[in-house]
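User: I'm new to structure prediction. If I give you an amino acid sequence, what do you actually give back? Let's try with this one:
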Amino acid sequence: MISSCGIFKGSGNVEAIKSKTESIAKNNFKGDYTIEYNKNYEFGAVIEKQKLDSGKDGDYRLKTMVYDTKNNKIIWGNKSKNGKLKWISKYQIKIDYQTRDNTDASLIYDAKNKKVEHKQ
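Assistant: Good question. You get back a string of structure tokens that encode the predicted 3D arrangement of the chain. For your 120 residues, that looks like this:
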């Protein structure tokens, strides 16, 4: 499933970007995944929920990969328990998740600067 968080405003071909990102996702993810793009399709966040064998029913691992569509490379990856991802700005992704002791936590990844800006 492919979704976007905005209308494409760049000069690249959206369908070519989606096709390339989909190809990278298929090579790196085994199960069902979704791709969420930032507003100008510069970055795609590929998200896969993996059921956990241990733990309570409904627990899952959120596997995330951020793909730089301009430079054709994976720039970041993360795995988190019971995570939810959303684009909160043009370049920032927020992931809410649970720690090993089931405490709620979150992190913000800045795709443009290629670093975790905030973690709690």
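You can read the tokens as a compact description of the fold. Here is one thing that stands out. Strands lie at 2-4, 33-37, 43-51, 60-68, 73-87, 92-98, 104-110, 115-119.
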